[in-house]
Amino acid sequence: MNHHSRQPADCLDLLLEARNPVDPSKLRTAGIEGALDELGADIAIRSRRGPRRSRGVSARVALVAAAVIVATVGVAAAGWSAHTGIFQPTKEQIASAEGQERAQLQSEVDMGGPGELLNAAAPDFREVALQVGADIPYPEGYESWRDFLIFNTIRTATGKDVVSEGALHGWFAASAFVAWIQAWRQAEMAGDAEGAAQAAQVIAQAPSWKAVTDEDPHPNPSAPGDEGSKRPTLFGWMLPYRDAVVAGDRARVEQLLATAYGSWSYTSDPPWNAQLDAHPEWSKLPAEDMARRYEEFLAAGRPGEIGAVDQDPATTEAATTGTDAPVTTIQPQERP
User: Fold this and answer.
1) pTM of the full structure
2) Where are the beta strands (DSSP E) in the chain?
């Protein structure tokens, strides 16, 4: 799905073993054992005699075998959950390990995030995801951003994909942070000093949210990279936005948004994704031209803003709820 999801060779085996709802001993009853013995004997006889015209197989054997299969599949489906019972290495486990093992355990957490591995293809993933992100506040009017993130995570998931609880928590933090940036901008435009101050307070606190520090204890917008380069840590991109908001520099905030600094300004925003879906040709635009499109989008205003240009409600609803029109896939920022 992205850098936080993984498909290790043994993950599916572990998942199936952990979530197997059927106790093997339950299938070792006298009736089932007898049916299987009879089925095996019939197969052996048919193999020695070669093909027969008769298609008849013991009706009792067939019915018993079918009942076992149906019952097993039904129970398995009923017990399938986003909770896999498989967890990433903890800080204590990493600290107690040595040498190469410690490096390997730390790498697993660095690449996939901490906590339990969740199956986004499971039917209860939405409920589990809402629990994971329950402590992340979204500004009033931006609740759909939370739903948009969950919908895209589910839509792109397969049965083999898992995402860590910590990674999902971080996605909510990034999405909500950009929503608060947008709320601050709108309050500034409307002359709503109280609303702007509230948004600014949340924005200033966001880099210290647990969802952030669990993955990036010390966010840095210019951490050392390869060959002397500088790049943000996983959540280091938040800090230039925060600093611009604290300084009251709306032009700087809009410049960061338009250039997709940190990538989340594009990927978290349902109305903007609706515009991208309505104009697939934009995917071929250079970064500068795409930034200009987003500046025009910002200038046009959001639904509900003073002076906002009406947008196609059907397209916007599809991007928010996953109905009818296709939706651009979320691709959150890669880890450094």
Assistant:
1) 0.70
2) 5-6, 83-87, 116-118, 162-164, 223-224, 230-231
CA distance 112 to 4: 4
For residue 28, the cross-strand partners are none
Buried b / exposed e along 187-199 (16+ C-beta atoms within 10 A): bbeeeeeebbebb
Domain ranges of the chain: 11-79, 83-321
Burial code of 284-307, b = ≥16 C-beta within 10 A, e = fewer? eeeeeebbebbeebbeebbeeeee
305 pLDDT more than 60 = no
Any bridge partners for residue 224, and if so which? 230
Provide the pLDDT confidence category of residue 12 given band limits of 50, 70 and 90. very low
**What are residue 223's phi and psi, to 5 degrees?**
-75, 150
Report CA-CA distances (Å) from 157 to 139, 167, 232: 28, 15, 27
Query: What is the token pair recorded at 25?
Result: 């001993």
Backbone angles phi, psi at 62, to 5 degrees: -65, -45
Q: 34-86, pLDDT tens digit by residue?
A: 655 655 555 444 433 333 333 333 443 343 334 333 333 443 444 589 999 99
Q: Report how far residue 56's alpha carbon sits from residue 144's, in angstroms, rounded to the nearest whole number.
A: 58
Q: What is the pLDDT of residues 184-242, one digit of tens each?
A: 999 999 999 999 999 999 999 999 999 999 999 999 999 887 777 788 999 999 999 99
C-alpha closest to that of 168 among 152, 179, 186: 152
Work out the average pLDDT over 274-287: 92
Confidence band (pLDDT; 50, 70, 90) for 33? low
